[in-house]
C-alpha cells in the first residue's frame, strides 16, 4: 500500500513530491507554478513541444503514448500525480496502472461533460455519466473524459480524485474564449452582447482550479467533484462589462435576445464563447451544484481579476488569439455580427 509522505513520524512536514502529466500549456502550467510556489518537488512529463518549462521543475521528456517513453516514470516515488490528458482513455489507463504502486493520489482533471445530457439544473456528482471504457481509443470528448475517470478509479480506488471542471478561464487560456471577447472589446464600437444580461455564468479561473487540486493532495479528497464557481458568481453582464472596462475601448454593449441570435444563424458557445441561451444546455453548464467543491476548499476570485490578468497576458504576448490544436477557433465573424445587430435594430423598431 502506497502512503502519502507529507508528514514524517516526528510530525515534521516533508516536501510533497508531485508529478504533472503535461504541465506546460494552461491548467497544467498553473498547477506546476502553484506547486513550485508551495515549495513542492515537481516533475513534469511531456514531449517538450510548448516552449515553456518551469525553472524549478524536473523534466522528463517523452510521448506518453509510447510505452518506452512512459516507462521512464516507473522509478519515481510520488505523493501525487496530476493528470491533464483529454484524448484516448487508454493513455490514462497506462499511466495510472504504471504509477498505482508509486504514487499516493492520482488527480485527474476531468470535465462536467461526463454527465448524461440533458442534465438537470443543480446536478451534483451522483448524476449518471456517459457510457465509456478505460481501454478505448479517442472517440468523443465526454466519453474520452469518462473513460479516463474509469481508468484512474480502477488503478487508484479511493485515492483517485476526479476534478470535474467546467468552463476554465484565465491567463494562458489556449481555447481562446476570454481572449476573443477581450480582443473584440478592444476593437470597440457596438458589440453584440448575448442576452439576457443577467444570465448566470459558472466558470473557474485556472489558478483557483490549480489551488484546489493541490489542496486536494494535502486534504485527502476522494472521488468526483464538480469544479466551477457558484451560480451567481458572475453573469454575462459581469463578464462583458469587465472585459470592456479593462481594454479601455469605446464600446457599446448591445444586448440581443437569444431568439434573434438564433435567427441570425449564430452558434452559441463557439461563436459567442461561453454563452449558452437559457434552456437545458445552459442548465447543464451554468447551474451545477458545487457544494462539494466549496466544502473542500474551492475559492473563486472575482471575475474582474480573471479578466484583468488575462488581458495583461494577452497584451504582453502580442494580442494573439489562441487557436486550439484539436478544434476550431472560437469567435464571431465581424460581418456576421454587424448583420445580426442591424437585424436586431430593425426588429426592435417594428
Ligand atoms: N478548457 C476548458 O474550459 C476545460 C473545461 C473542462 C475540463 N478541461 C480539461 O482541462 C485539462 C486542461 O489541460 P491543459 O491542456 O491545460 O494541460 P497542460 O498540462 O497545461 O497542457 C497539456 C500538456 O500535455 C502535454 N502533452 C500533449 N500530448 C502529449 C503526449 N503525447 N505525451 C506527453 N505529453 C503530452 C503537452 O506538452 P507537449 O505538447 O510538449 O507534449 C502539455 O504539457 C484537459 O484535460 C481538459 O479536458 C478543460
Sheet of most strands: 7 strands, parallel
Please count the beta strands (DSSP E, at least 2 residues each).
Answer: 15
State the helix count: 12
Rg over alpha carbons: 21 Å
Overall structural class, as computed from helix and strand content, comes to alpha/beta
Which runs of at least 5 residues are low in confidence (pLDDT < 50)? 1-5
Assess the beta-strand content as a share of residues. 15-25%
Q: From N to C, what is the helix and strand string?
A: EHEEHEHEHEEHEEEHEEHEHEEHHHH
Give the termini distance in whole angstroms: 72 Å
Small ligands present: NADP nicotinamide-adenine-dinucleotide phosphate
**pLDDT average, as an integer?**
94
What is the 3D shape?
Answer: globular
For the biggest β-sheet, the strand order reads: 3-2-1-4-5-6-11
Helix coverage percent: 25-40%
Question: What would your notes on this structure say?
Answer:
36% of the residues lie in helices and 19% in strands. The protein is built from 12 helices and 15 strands. Strands 3-2-1-4-5-6-11 form a 7-stranded parallel sheet, sandwiched between helices. Strands 7-10 form a two-stranded parallel ribbon. Strands 8-13 form a two-stranded parallel sheet. The chain is globular. The N and C termini lie far apart (72 Å). NADP nicotinamide-adenine-dinucleotide phosphate binds at residues 22-29, 46-50, 63-65, 84, 86, 109, 111, 165, 167-168, 175.
Amino acid at each position: 500500500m502506497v502512503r502519502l509522505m507529507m508528514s514524517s513520524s516526528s510530525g515534521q512536514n516533508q516536501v510533497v513530491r508531485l508529478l504533472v502529466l503535461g504541465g506546460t500549456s494552461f491548467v497544467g502550467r498553473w498547477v506546476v507554478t502553484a506547486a513550485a510556489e508551495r515549495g513542492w518537488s515537481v516533475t513534469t512529463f511531456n514531449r517538450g513541444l510548448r516552449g515553456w518549462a518551469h525553472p524549478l521543475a524536473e523534466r522528463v521528456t517523452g510521448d506518453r503514448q509510447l510505452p518506452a517513453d512512459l516507462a521512464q516514470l516507473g522509478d519515481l516515488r510520488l505523493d501525487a500525480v496530476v493528470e491533464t490528458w483529454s484524448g484516448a482513455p487508454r493513455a490514462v489507463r497506462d499511466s495510472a496502472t504504471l504509477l498505482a504502486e508509486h504514487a499516493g493520489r492520482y488527480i485527474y482533471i476531468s470535465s462536467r461533460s461526463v454527465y448524461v445530457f440533458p442534465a438537470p439544473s443543480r446536478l451534483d456528482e451522483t448524476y449518471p455519466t456517459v457510457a465509456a471504457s478505460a481501454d478505448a481509443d479517442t472517440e468523443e470528448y465526454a466519453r474520452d473524459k469518462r473513460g479516463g475517470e474509469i481508468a484512474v478509479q480502477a488503478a487508484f480506488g479511493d485515492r483517485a480524485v476526479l476534478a470535474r471542471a467546467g468552463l476554465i478561464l484565465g491567463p494562458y487560456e489556449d481555447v481562446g474564449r476570454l481572449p476573443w471577447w477581450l480582443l473584440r472589446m478592444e476593437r470597440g464600437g457596438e458589440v453584440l452582447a448575448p442576452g439576457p444580461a443577467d444570465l448566470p455564468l459558472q466558470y473557474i479561473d485556472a489558478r483557483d482550479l490549480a489551488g484546489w487540486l493541490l489542496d486536494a493532495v494535502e486534504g485527502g479528497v476522494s472521488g468526483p467533484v464538480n469544479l466551477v464557481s457558484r451560480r451567481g458568481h458572475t453573469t454575462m453582464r459581469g463578464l462583458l462589462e469587465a472585459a470592456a472596462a479593462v481594454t479601455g475601448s469605446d464600446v457599446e454593449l448591445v444586448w440581443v435576445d437569444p431568439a434573434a441570435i438564433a435567427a441570425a444563424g449564430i452558434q452559441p458557445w463557439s461563436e459567442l464563447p461561453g454563452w449558452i441561451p437559457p434552456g437545458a444546455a445552459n442548465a447543464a453548464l451554468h447551474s451545477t451544484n458545487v457544494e462539494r467543491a466549496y466544502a473542500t476548499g474551492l475559492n473563486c476570485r472575482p471575475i474582474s481579476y480573471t479578466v484583468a490578468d488575462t488581458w495583461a497576458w494577452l497584451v504582453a504576448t502580442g494580442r494573439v488569439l489562441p487557436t486550439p490544436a484539436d478544434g476550431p477557433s472560437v469567435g464571431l465573424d465581424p460581418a456576421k455580427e454587424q448583420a445580426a445587430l442591424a437585424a436586431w435594430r430593425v426588429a426592435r423598431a417594428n
